[in-house]
Amino acid sequence: ADLCESVGADALYAFTFDTLAHESTLHARTFGADGTAAPATGFGAGAVGAYLRETEALDVDSVVCEQGHVRDRPGLVRVRLADRVWVGGRATVALDGRVTIPDRSDGDDIVVA
After folding, report:
1. Is 104 helix (H, G, I), strand (E, B) or coil?
2. CA torsion through residues 48, 50, 55, 56, sign
3. Are 53 and 63 in contact (CB under 8 A)?
4. Among the listed residues 31, 39, 21, 26, the one whose alpha carbon sits nearest the alpha carbon of residue 95
5. How far is CA 95 from CA 17, 91, 98, in A?
């Protein structure tokens, strides 16, 4: 949280080239400034892909980012590094629902679920 605050970031995407799977390019984890951690994120993978392309750190057309293993929700995000960065992978719905917030005129400001 302190590091994110010091640079004005909402999250930190930590990565290493030390992977669990042979076919993966990097292993990563996202830490939110608020203490949350996403199991897998295309946003972070896309940003690191753009960074690796810009710095010419790798001579490849794409990377595979493995994420979520620490939280028992492993995932792979594929990032193509052509003229534009393309992020993709498969997704699974983990939660489906609806949130209803009562109108303020219904009483006090506390919402109890």
Report:
1. helix
2. positive
3. no
4. 39
5. 31, 12, 10
Q: Express each pLDDT in 74-108 by its tens digit.
A: 889 999 998 888 898 777 777 788 877 777 666 66
Hey, is 54 helix, strand or coil?
helix
Q: Which residue has the higher pLDDT, 89 or 61?
A: 61
Residue 56 contacts by C-beta under 8 Å, 6 or more apart in sequence?
none
DSSP string for residues in 14-81: EEES--SSTT-SEEEEEEETTS---S--HHHHHHHHHHHHHTT----SEEEEEE-GGGT--EEEEEEE
